[in-house]
Design a protein that fits this description.
Layout: H1 5-115, H2 122-140
Helix pairs in contact: 1-2
């Protein structure tokens, strides 16, 4: 039995192909396992991303509600401050009037004390003058 060169070359090629297949099979098995793990990882990532998107949507909705309530509250406070401005102005005017009255009273007492004679008491004169001045202001509507 003689083998021709062509048959020998074919046999060598067949053995080489068999060795190639035998060494490639473990690599293909490892690649398959790796691809399964990659597929599981991608599935987990997609699930986590979906949950995260739902959480962000809920958070944005709550933030929008909170901003609406804050805007309503701010508008209410603004209206109340506008209503409070006249009260603050009136209190300021009242303080100024009291200050003016104190100043006038001091001037009147000072004049009355320099005006009083020896037999007229300063307290009596000053109370009389203050009474007259306050009556005069009430008549004018300044009080």
């Amino acid at each position: 039995m003689t083998i021709s060169y062509g048959a020998l070359a074919g046999l060598i090629a067949a053995v080489a192909f068999l060795l190639l297949v035998l060494f490639t099979i473990p690599a293909l098995v490892r690649v398959t396992k790796t691809m399964k793990k990659v597929d599981e990882t991608v599935t987990t990532a997609n699930k986590t991303l979906s949950e995260l998107t739902d959480d962000v949507d809920a958070l944005l909705h709550q933030s929008e509600d909170l901003l609406d309530k804050s805007n309503d509250l701010l508008a209410d406070v603004k209206d109340k401050v506008k209503n409070l401005d006249p009260v603050v102005q009136a209190a300021s005017d009242l303080g100024q009037s009291v200050s003016d009255l104190n100043h006038s009273s001091r001037r009147l007492v000072k004049r009355a004390s320099s005006f009083s004679a020896g037999h007229v008491k300063t307290g009596l004169v000053s109370s009389l003058i203050v009474s007259l001045l306050s009556r005069r202001k009430r008549r004018r509507g300044e009080d």
